[in-house]
Amino acid sequence: MAEKQESESEQSGEEIRIGVYVCHCGLNIAGSVDCEEVAKFASTLPHVVLGKDNRYTCSDQGQELIKNDIKEHKLNRVVVASCSPRLHEPTFRKTCEDAGLNKYLFEMANIREQCSWIHLHDRKAATEKAKDLVKMAVAKAALLQPAEEIEVPIIRKALVIGGGVAGIQAALDLADTGYKVHLVEKEPSIGGRMAQIDKTFPTMDCSICILAPKMSDVGHHPNIELLTNSEVVDVKGYIGNFHAKVVKKPRYVTDDCTACGECAEVCPVIAPNEFDIGLAIRRAVYTPFAQAVPSTYMIDMNLCLNKENIIVCDKCIKACEAQAINFEMKTETVELEVGTIIVATGADVFDPSSQPNYGYGKYPNVITSLEFERLINAGGPSGGHLIRPSDLQIPKRVAFIQCVGSRSEKSGRLYCSNVCCMNTIKDSLLIKEHWPETEIYVFYIDIRAYGKGFEDLYQRAKKEGVMFIRGLPAEIVQDRKTHNLWLTGENTLQKELYKANVDMVILSIGLEPRKDSETIQRLLKLSRTQDGFFMEAHPKLRPVDAATGGIFFAGCAEGPKDIKDSVTQASAATARASILMAKGKVTVGAITPIFDPEKCTACGLCVKVCPYNAITLNEELKRIEIIEAACGGCGTCAAECPFGALTQNHFTDRQISAEIDAVTEHDAEKKIVAFCCNWCAYAGADFAGVSRIQYPPDVRIIRTMCSGRIAPKFIERAFARGAATVLVAGCHPGDCHYINANYHTQKRVERLRKKMEKHELDKERLQLLWASAAEGERFASKIREMHAIVEKVTPEEIERTKKAYEKALGEV
Amino acid sequence: MPVRIWRTPLNIEKAKLPKAEIHIIKNQCKGCGFCIQFCPKDVLEESEEINERGVHPPKVVDESKCVLCSFCTSICPDFAIFVVEKLCEEEC
Amino acid sequence: MTNLQEFERHPLANYLRVERFPHIWCEGCGNGIILHCFVKALDELGANMDKLVVVSGIGCMGRVAGYIQCDSFHTTHGRPIALATGIKLANPQLTVAVISGDGDLFAIGGNHFIHAARRNVDMTVICSNNFNYGMTGGQCGPTTPLLSYTTTTPYGNIEHPFNLVHLAAASGAVHVARWTVLHVKRLTESIKKALQKRGFKFIEVVSPCPEIYGRRNKFGKAIDTMKRYREIAEIRHGYAPSKAEITSEKIVVGEFIDIEKPTYGELLQGQFMRFNKG
Fold it and tell me: C223 and B77 in contact by Cβ < 8 A?
């Protein structure tokens, strides 16, 4: 923990020597900004010993220049005014490091994306703005301190949550690499959805036949500890050092079970079997399916007659030759220490009972695609005969209805479930294979056959005579005597209504996020997209990483997908996890809190706001303690502390205040002081620049990692210095890079706006904007909107504001 | 797999459960009520008639629900009730 | 059909002296259940009834010797274990079971119990514990809980009771278990296990005494006591017998001790063989 040691170099009397480099970037910057003038201006700033301009600072030549200058002129701070730090900060940091300068003594001024590219036609304004931005960067650089990144060791063990095909693949890959894996599965057997399916597309392989060997491997692998019938109930810790608690629910059958099945023969309790979607029976003592791994029976105590620990019926005990039944088994808790976690919890299927017009749940012959899989499976309740539930006859005409529970506002699920089109095509070919005379209709909106071999399968289905009709039926009505079904709808290609009479309807139900994913989300502090599936760190470049370090996704937990993509993602997640575990350690960015224990009153406010639970309250010592390795670097704690005991490394209160002061030194009444978060708002402003969207040159952006860093005192300081308007911008709620830190931003800004009203100030001068990295235009619009407000603000209002907030100018 | 289960299983007829024959030795019963209380399928209830000892012995409500767990046989302190399997050749 | 004819169709009728039924025990008394479990255990083991001897003492449970269809002894108060020791030594081929009550075995018979356990004489002792002297009118005994009401403790019992399983284990019994009469299946299994083992085996069975002990302490009817057992019984196999207590909130049941030790008979036989060879 870094105790308060700011201004150490000032106290030690070391002279600050800053070098400023203004980049032309060819004509990208020089085209709108007078770089020479800016460089000259930079040399006049306090602590600046040299100010240069050059054509391509990021090139080898440019970097060599900086390195030489550092040595020759004994520079101990470097400022580069060029493109966005999101692009080249790492590059120049390395340059400094190579020259022997600590990489945290480097600062950038963004005079390209946020200056030259957006003010292409106003050279004067652009140059003035560039000068301001350089001034801000220099003011901050003067206060920067060297910092060392801490290394955190990584435990070389992994936890895989979920035993479907994705979890199985991930566990096997990790185990084969040599790491110990704990595979935790909620159900009594691994296998997930793939075990229920009959055949897979496009190869028409038998699903359980290709899955069972993998399941068996998992059961036998020396590096895999299989915990089935178990749930993860608690996860503490951080990347590389997770501490998980797993609860193993008792089976009431010991490991001596040989799966002979004698117990199930004599058990008098019958219930519908979940694996067969209630189409077949099982007993109170049962095994989920024939190929279950681990291959053992278990007792469903909700059904068993032996309630409250009194054995009333002992038929299974008497029948078991291995004497494996034990009603005294208790729940066990297992504690695991792992370095990485792979979330492979899978997806649920949509329940079409909520669509009354399709009659599922009322009409026996309307079935779901999952029920179809069980009926057509040779090991299922009907021995592979596709029979109608009403009269157990084989249907002569069937209809498939696509997109049930997908792509529809009515069902509340707007996304496409990915697999249903191909699943129906596969199912229709299966029917044709066994009963070639069957008439098959597929009612669809679009047929999505995008993958390898998918189009071929689609063409085959059409050749076999499957009729594809574009237009979902509006409703299904049952014939009371025959239990046949009438479907009415519009064929949108022929532009005519249809009324089809079929024997059986199969609803192609969609995939939806698991209802219990909330638990995992809360435990691992994951984010979810609007659809409810887990959110990856970056949809294109980090598709299997969670935003929280050390956690990865595989399979449908992250979004609906087929088996091939699930397996692919599982192997990808394994690779990502292996990177961490192979290195054995991870470095944590030095943007962690600086804590002054003297000022701490143990009020606990910071503990409450930390999204990573990285701060704990030590009641005895009456102060907080920070777990640096768990810190995400958002700075919300620093903004929350009312006593000034916390500030953030590399984004200290003094540094931010220096930037505010630099901006508002001249012409504050014409400026918008903007605080933008690194991940969304700042990136959005960059994107506006990349897209060459033009907007007024009023805004001066101060960058923090998270909008949660913005303490009310910064905004008050800006107003006290005479700023016309202030903008606080961050990620959309729910998308915050630091999980939920922007929720506190919203609260703080709302409070300040109320206070402004009380002071009889125009609260529109303080704006809050949620803008994502893709919303450049949204950012530009906001600036235009605020430009109008800047024009309206009277000098009298500015004076009143300065008076109202003059306390904010005190000691930082 | 929390999918909604609402159907009657297609193979429910195939489940062969043994049929039970419940014998109550009415005059040996002392009316403690253990069998009635602890039967897991609630097959027994107190009858209206009074036996030699002046108590109400149990009577069978629905013999088809009995699963032959024989708990009543074991829990009766007086050996007054026992269950045997009904051996049927064709139909029971 | 007469009572007797009906009773003869009972699956366990062969093991019982059916002409003596119905037995004398009260409505809801646990002794009948213990008898049933014992006889069921014999049935499941396919025991040879000609090689079985049942010895009982004085008290309600002591009547059991008259109901089992085998060679049995209904002996003087407190002495079944002494007799059983003699029987076993005289004819080691016999399986000897002592079934009696808590007063008979642990008050007047206490000394016989601890020494037979110490010597590890091969016998199975089943104690029906109803926490008082039932047959003689409900006096307090060595297992009556503190502050309970009995005919001799109308103001509350001031004596601490024995923890029977602790006593048995401390004395050296090789198999010690406790069940209530509600745990019929597990009790039957316990008896089977004990009958097949060699050495001194002890099973305590907690039983309701609805007419006397139960009535005096306002426990309601027998069915209420059984329901109470269901609520407060806790199964803890392998628990330390000293900690396996019976309180108003908790009855710890289970199999606590299961060890092997040479029996008195075996050691005696061994000595005979060694010194009679000359």
Answer: no
**Residue-range domain boundaries for chain A:** 1-149, 157-340+552-583, 348-512, 651-812
CATH number of A651-812: 3.40.5, 2.20.70, 1.10.10, 3.40.50? Answer: 3.40.50
Domain A157-340+552-583 falls under CATH 3.30.565? no
Distant-in-sequence, close-in-space partners of A180: CB < 8 Å, separation ≥ 6? A156, A157, A158, A223, A224, A225
pLDDT band at A238 (very low <50, low <70, confident <90, very high): confident
What domain range includes position C254?
3-277
Domain ranges of chain B: 20-85
CATH number of the domain bearing residue C41: 3.40.50.970
- Could you count the other beta carbons within 10 Å of the beta carbon of residue A564? 16
What CA–CA distance (Å, rounded) separates A294 from A346? Answer: 20
Q: Which residue has the higher pLDDT, A446 or A735?
A: A446
- 3 state DSSP class of C165: helix
B19-38 per-position pLDDT tens digit:
999 999 999 999 999 999 99
pLDDT recorded at residue C116 = 96
Secondary structure of B36-75 in HEC code, one letter for each residue: HHHCCCCCEEECCCCCCCCCCCEEECCHHHCCCCCHHHHH
d(CA C208, CA C221): 9
Give the pLDDT score at A1.
38
Residue closest to A256 by CA, chosen among A325, A343, A183: A325
Of C178, C207, C198, C164, nearest in space to C64 by CA = C207
Q: With an 8 Å Cβ cutoff, are A382 and B10 in contact?
A: yes
From the CB of residue B14, how many other CB atoms can be counted at a distance below 10 Å? 10
User: Would the CB atoms of B71 and A313 count as touching at under 8 Å?
Assistant: yes
State the fold for domain B20-85.
Answer: Alpha-Beta Plaits (3.30.70)
Residues 107-126 of C with CB under 8 A from B: none
Q: Which residue of chain A has the CA closest to B69? A: A313
Task: Out of C7, C30, C221, name the one closest to residue B25 (CB).
Answer: C7
Which ipTM was obtained for this model? 0.91
DSSP for A751-792, written as a single string: HHHHHHHHTT--GGGEEEEE--TT-HHHHHHHHHHHHHHHHH
User: Which CATH number does the domain A348-512 belong to among 3.50.50.60, 2.60.34.30, 3.90.226.10, 3.30.420.40?
Assistant: 3.50.50.60
Contacting residues for A268 by C-beta, under 8 A, at least 6 apart:
A305, A313, A315, B17, B67, B68, B69
Q: Are A57 and A21 in contact (CB under 8 A)?
A: yes
